[in-house]
Design goal:
Elements (H helix, E strand, L loop, with lengths): L11 E3 L2 E7 L4 H4 L2 H4 L5 E5 L10 H4 L4 E9 L8 E6 L2 E2 L1 E6 L2 E7 L5 E4 L9 E9 L10 E7 L5 E7 L8 E2 L3 E6 L4 E11 L2 E10 L4 H6 L1 E7 L5 E6 L2 E6 L13 E8 L5 E9 L4 E4 L2 E4 L2 E2 L2 E5 L13 H14 L3 E3 L7 H10 L2 E5 L27 H18 L5 E8 L8 H15 L4 E5 L16 E6 L10 H19 L3 E6 L17 H18 L4 E5 L29 H11 L16
Parallel strand pairs: 25-26, 25-32, 26-27, 27-28, 28-29, 29-30, 30-31
Antiparallel strand pairs: 1-14, 2-3, 2-4, 4-10, 5-9, 5-14, 6-13, 7-8, 7-10, 11-12, 15-16, 16-19, 17-18, 17-20, 20-21, 22-23, 23-24
Bound molecules: (2S,3S,4S,5R)-3,4,5-trihydroxy-6-oxo-oxane-2-carboxylic acid.
Length: 614
């Protein structure tokens, strides 16, 4: 799916701003036709943003059910000869959209874009009425899974509760930008590229998909592709809908040293008049798992960085360029070279910046909480892969969101791997056919390595699923959820645990999570749990083990920054495992990581500046 961009033939209007908003606890909206009559008692709400913490209303913070958004917009008169599209970056978790009273699209899944063709629904040169009904309920047939129940309030009113297994707040609303954009009537629908190189020559295999609206036009149309270097010089070109272009003296996209070419795709009619034009940045690089190595451009890569969240004060999961850039500058400052989009695909704009900054990304689908416990490292697990919980419908949805994520992100050089689940109950018998089907379907779509992220409670011999994947992520909390306050015992457990996985699987392993809750400003010497000193000691203890073992492919700390969760005894105003506070200021441990991740002696020769660690 192409990101909406302005080009020579396309225009774009950002509908971000203040919209009308109304919660609908009694479910009146549909029966009273709010989609055509308008919202009866709206308040003001920013878009994009989560709605939960904008007002002071406690009911809205924890609200479960339908809410409605509304605004008016103009479509310029001169757009009447084009195709007009309405695109939502994400609506969490489900959305139904009406324009001028007509339903135009429904979407399920809160972390990927969806769009609708509204060419024939809008009034040109006049005001148009846009209404969106957003629902934040979860079920076992969605990702992340969840369950809605009802309770009676003291005032006798029945309200909905959401039971969720994942550890982040159920922020809801229109989270990412809403765009109105045009394409010509016959248009470039999709572009797919694959890159490679041999010696100093780069190759870009491309495939351009043209809309099927006008078959007679198609037979005579011509596609041309031009590649420009970073200084704007044309370096290569190709002709036809499918082709391979050669780039002499190629400059590769490397972690920490991003080089982007601009690809310009042009569609001409039989008179050689340009009909459509689209542009994207591409990076030429290869990714491969070979034996026990993770190779970028043929050289071993060691992941240093974080599991993150899209999360901030007030806006919740609302898109914010300032916050995104702050995070990238902090990652650069601390010496991180990568992050995982735990636990859902992030806004595509984040990937654009990672492409430009040379930060490596593991993109994850929202498959989190596919197990029976909220704080996963504690307690016994019950089976969830069965008819009443994770079933064929869940799998269908899982495959669909994986496909949508790949369709959106496939051309980003920063994305080097797909993570298909975080901490699923993979020791269950039924988990194996589920993940086998998912992996088979995913491999048909893209050849990037596939990762699964495992729960520390599951022993390697009992995991029925890891064998299907190329890279295994391990989430490890010895010294926090077990071996509490005993880092010696924690190190021993960690070492034993990793050795066990290494021996059993013989596949590349990386630590996808390790961390401890830490209250900024709480200092204790000797270190005690929740103090900044304990977080530092915990990282030091883990790093000694990682370095002693030497075979890990990476270390991703949990978490980049403190983030909001649902309320819980072990969640003090959210999850405090951040190395940075929620306001993006460093805790003590940030300096420990910075020292480790920026120390020149720590960069292995073998990886040639990729940031490898022996
Ligand atoms: C995990 C989960 C993550 C939690 C984290 C924690 O294993 O993957 O979503 O936030 O543990 O802090 O408990």
């Amino acid at each position: 799916m192409l990101y909406p961009r302005e080009t020579r033939t396309r225009e774009c209007k950002d509908l971000s701003g203040i919209w009308h908003f109304q919660a609908d606890p009694d479910g009146h909206g549909r029966s009273f036709k709010w989609f055509s009559k308008g919202l009866p008692c709206p308040i003001l709400m920013p878009v994009p943003s989560s709605y939960n913490e904008i007002t002071t209303d406690p009911q809205l913070r924890d609200y479960i059910g339908d809410v409605w958004y509304e605004r008016y917009f103009y479509v310029p008169k001169d757009w009447s000869d084009r195709r007009v599209m309405l695109r939502f970056g994400s609506v969490t978790h489900s959305g139904t959209v009406w324009v001028n009273g007509e339903e135009i699209v429904r979407n399920k899944g809160g972390f990927l874009p969806f769009e609708a063709d509204i060419t024939n629904v809008v009034y040109y040169g006049q005001l148009n009425h846009l209404v969106v009904c957003v629902n934040n309920e979860l079920s076992w047939e969605m990702l992340p899974p969840g369950e809605v129940s009802f309770h009676q309030d003291a005032d006798g009113v029945s309200r909905k509760d959401l039971h969720q297994q994942h550890d982040f707040f159920n922020y809801s609303g229109i989270h990412r930008p809403v765009y109105l954009y045009t394409t010509p009537m016959t248009y470039i629908e999709d572009v797919t590229i694959k890159t490679s190189f041999e010696g100093h020559t780069g190759f870009v295999d491309y495939q351009v998909c043209i809309s099927q609206q006008n078959p007679s036009f198609l037979s005579d149309s011509i596609v041309k592709v031009f590649l420009y270097d970073a200084s704007g010089n044309k370096v290569a070109e190709g002709k036809g809908e499918i082709g391979k272009i050669k780039v002499q003296d190629v400059q590769l996209w490397n972690p920490g040293d991003a080089y982007l070419y601009r690809m310009s795709v042009c569609l001409y009619d039989e008179q050689h008049v340009e009909v459509d034009h689209y542009e994207l940045n591409i990076g030429i690089r290869t990714v491969k798992v070979e034996g026990n190595s993770f190779l970028i451009n043929g050289r071993p890569f060691y992941f240093r960085g974080f599991g993150k969240h899209e999360d901030m004060d007030i806006k919740g999961k609302g898109f914010d360029h300032a916050l995104i850039l702050r995070d990238f500058y902090l990652m650069e400052w601390i010496g991180a070279n990568s992050f995982r989009t735990s636990h859902y695909p992030y806004a595509e704009e984040v990937l654009d910046i990672a492409d430009r900054q040379g930060i490596v990304v593991i993109s994850e689908v929202p498959a989190v909480g596919m197990l029976s416990k909220a704080v996963p490292a504690m307690g016994e697990l019950e089976d969830v892969f069965h008819q009443e919980k994770i079933n064929d419908k869940t799998l269908e949805h899982h495959i669909r969101v994986t496909r949508d994520m790949i369709r959106r992100d496939k051309n980003h050089p920063c994305v080097v791997m797909w993570s298909l689940a975080n901490e699923a109950s993979t020791m269950e018998e039924n988990a194996e056919p589920y993940f086998r089907k998912l992996v088979d379907e995913t491999r048909k779509l893209d050849d990037r390595p596939l990762m699964i992220v495992n729960l520390m409670l599951i022993e390697p011999k009992k995991c029925r699923v890891s064998k299907l994947f190329d890279v295994i992520g391990l989430n490890t909390y010895f010294g926090w959820y077990s071996e509490m306050a005993n880092l010696k015992a924690a190190s021993a457990r960690l070492e034993q645990f990793l050795e066990d996985w290494h021996r059993t699987l013989g596949k590349p392993l990386m630590i996808t999570e390790y961390g401890v809750d830490t209250i900024q400003g709480l200092h204790r010497q000797p270190p005690v749990m929740y103090s900044e000193e304990y977080q530092v000691s915990f990282f030091q203890a883990y790093h000694q083990v990682f370095d002693r073992l030497g075979y890990l492919k990476g270390e991703h700390v949990w978490n980049f920054a403190d983030f909001m969760t649902k309320e819980d005894l072990v969640r003090i105003d959210g999850n405090r495992k951040g190395v940075f506070t929620r306001q993006r200021q460093p805790k003590m441990s940030a300096y420990t990581l910075k020292e480790r991740w920026t120390a020149p002696a720590e960069i292995s020769q073998e990886s040639d500046g990729h940031g490898g660690r022996r």
